[in-house]
Design brief:
By secondary structure, the chain is an alpha/beta fold. It has a single domain, classed as Rossmann fold (3-Layer(aba) Sandwich), CATH 3.40.50.300. Helix content is about 40%, strand content about 15%. The chain binds guanosine-5'-triphosphate and magnesium ion.
Length: about 260
């Protein structure tokens, strides 16, 4: 059997990504009427996505905003179980080993979410710093987490992810001194891959920075993002709106040192 040529391989890839774009539009169309903002959370495994969503859910609900979550993992329903008491609606998507979520995986839940019409639908992507970024889920806002224990250089090692988000949350800031974490170094690296991106350091355990994270999400949700809806391979096309967020400078200054 002959091997596919490079051109054939690229054509298959292009068709898959085109289909993924059409699928993302289905999600957008389904949720547009309910004024639901879809937020895609991406990061390495264990960087604190679920923990952060729990405290964000508590706070947004206290502010009268309804919150739904779809959470992706290769296996187990652990994260959905953890979030159940913190949000209005949650469902686990088990990908059976697939390293990212795709918009079509959201289809079975769209009717129910559409009826609920939550103010926010957070989608916790599978923990992975490479694959998720290529798949538009129909989100309006993209957030990357970087926990202090991962090392400061992740933005330059994974520019595809950190270059394609509206907001970076530096998580687990309560552990910063234990690992000699330098926020200044991270800010320098982020400046290279995503100039002007808002950066907020926070701890889901102590509550530091949470108000700022929620304020940023609300602000981005109100503005929308010009990053999304442009298709996959968003690297380098980050939103000029995000860089204009009023919080950017203040939060950076406020967050230094946790
Ligand atoms: N000290 C500290 N620990 C945290 C913080 N946030 C999360 N953790 C802990 O870090 C571990 C991983 O947190 P998760 O929220 O499960 O991380 P995740 O990104 O959802 O992980 P995956 O879903 O597996 O990708 C857990 O033991 C949390 O309790 C934080 O702000 N400070
Ligand atoms: Mg999780």
């Amino acid at each position: 059997m002959t091997q596919p040529t490079e051109a054939q391989h690229l054509e298959v890839e292009r068709r898959i990504l085109d289909q993924a774009l059409r699928d993302a539009q289905v999600v957008r169309d389904a949720l547009a009427g309910g004024h639901t903002t879809v937020v895609n959370l991406m990061s390495a495994p264990g960087s604190g996505k679920t923990e952060l969503l729990g405290v964000i859910g508590d706070e947004l609900r206290a502010q009268g905003q309804s919150v739904a979550v779809l959470v992706g993992d290769c296996a187990t329903e652990h994260d959905a179980d953890r979030l159940r008491s913190h949000v209005d609606w949650v469902h686990q998507i088990v990908t059976d080993g697939v390293c990212h979520l795709e918009a079509r995986m959201l289809f079975p839940f769209l009717a129910e979410i559409g009826q609920l019409a939550p103010r926010y639908l957070f989608v916790e992507n599978v923990g992975n710093m490479v694959c998720p970024v290529d798949f538009d889920l129909g989100e309006a806002v993209r957030i990357a987490l970087l926990s202090v224990t991962e090392g400061e250089d992740k933005p330059v090692k994974y520019p595809g992810l950190f270059g394609a988000v509206d907001l970076v949350v530096v998580s687990k800031i309560d552990l910063a001194s234990a690992v000699d974490f330098s926020l200044e170094t991270v800010l320098g690296y982020l400046q290279r891959v995503n100039p002007g991106v808002p950066v907020i350091s926070s701890s889901a355990k102590t509550g530091v920075g949470l108000d700022a994270v929620i304020g940023a999400i609300r602000s981005l949700a109100a503005q929308g993002s010009s990053l999304t809806g442009q298709g996959s391979s968003l690297t380098g096309q980050r939103s000029s709106m995000a860089s204009n967020l009023p919080l950017a400078g203040g939060v950076r200054a406020a967050s230094v040192g946790g």
